[in-house]
Amino acid sequence: MANLQDLAVSIVSNSPGMPTGYGVQAQLLANNLLHSGAKVASFSNYGLEGAITHIDTPFGRIEHYPRGLRPYSDDVMPHHFRHFKALHPSRKHIMITLYDVWVLQNPELDEIPIHAWTPLDHVTMPPAVERFLRKDNVSPISMSPFGQKEMDLKDINNTYIPHAYDAKSYLPTAKIKNKKTRDFMGISEDDFLVGMVAANKANGQIHRKAYAENLMAFAIFLKDNPTAKLYIHAEPSKAYGGFDLGNLVKAVGIPQENVLFPNPMDLRYGFSSQHMAALYSTFDVLLAPSYGEGFGVPTIEAQACGTRVIASDWAASSDLVSEDSFLVDGQPFWDEAQSSWFMIPKIPSIVNALKQAAELERHSQASVDFALHFSNLNVWNQYWKPYLEQVVS
Fold first, then answer.
1. Residues above pLDDT 90, as percent of the chain
2. Residue 271: its pLDDT value, please?
3. Which of 12, 118, 257, 370 could link 43 by a cystine bridge, Cβ 3.0 to 4.6 Å?
4. Residue 1 has pLDDT above 90, yes or no
5. Tens digit of pLDDT for each residue in 91-109?
6. Cα–Cα distance between 129 and 154 in angstroms, integer?
7. What is the pLDDT of residue 87?
8. CB distance 29 to 36 below 8 Å
9. pLDDT confidence of residue 326
10. Residue 37 CB: number of other CB atoms within 10 A?
């Protein structure tokens, strides 16, 4: 049997441990690799600048390389790869990318064995993504059943490995800092609480997380459910290129007393997994329709905590909700920038899903059971370990 102690892996993504979806996945993967005896480096496109350093984990050290001058740091990746390879010359070196592959444009990357863990968040594959995945040095990894189908349709040989969540942290959780979560939030146990956990990052024009459609739907739902609350776990300002959510809340007519945002400093420094689990657990439903998801980790984290999800019936989301969650309809939307199609969730369909969710009890065991398939241990043993053993052999 192949030995992962012969392997060295460079992970191209947000720095492991950053409070982002990519940062969490990078940390889970790095921990599993280190625990199996592999050497690991992080090539940061967000989370480190200026100098090579390292990240200490319970399983060993991650060599931590800083971002470059280009927006997605593909300018420095080949240099980092050669440096890390020189540190461990006897090992087999590969690069795993966990990010949009169309941003990787440095021709020097064509000389590196790349295993591209690829998000496909459109309902049609962008041409730039297809071109990258067809390169001779690239081994595509699909992260959702939808992504696998899309690559199969294009005759792109790929391996399916889903994203994962930490099952030790994300489970039904009743309290934050020894207080019942709703007491901590200052809301009643009887209020119907809708949660959104979606980064407010965009290009200033199109928001993939469908904030406008979701907030309009909640405003309509609120007319018949005036005590309902909406918690938005995101930066409300345009600081990261997203929308002015405060302005959008006013524009759709949601009263100030019906919407909650997290403490801005807590959000900036990152919430603990246990804190997030308590928030997910107290939501009556997670509101998560978008124009398209490459995976959508919050949908799995919420279900692991027993919370049903309202999601889009397209791209990755279609396959990532339990039987008692809700999928909404949409209509095509052309993304000129990537020459491919998104879908816009239909507001009446979201409203209908909110009404159905309001009739159900808060906790869903079916959601918990469904999420377990994506636990970190299961994803490592069932998908990553066999794949990497084959790579080494």
1. 94
2. 86
3. 12
4. no
5. 999 999 999 999 999 999 9
6. 11
7. 97
8. no
9. 98
10. 13
| Nearest in space to 100 (alpha carbons), one of 133, 149, 68, 135 | 133
Sheet holding 285-287, edge to edge: 259-260, 229-232, 193-196, 285-287, 309-312, 326-328
Give the residue among 325, 360, 353, 351 at the shortest CA–CA distance from 222: 351
In this structure, of 20-29, 110-119, 130-139, 202-211, the range with the lowest mean pLDDT score is: 202-211
What are the CA-CA distances from residue 306 to residues 42, 72, 172, 288 (Å)? 33, 36, 6, 15
Closest of 249, 352, 337, 232 to residue 291, by C-alpha? 337
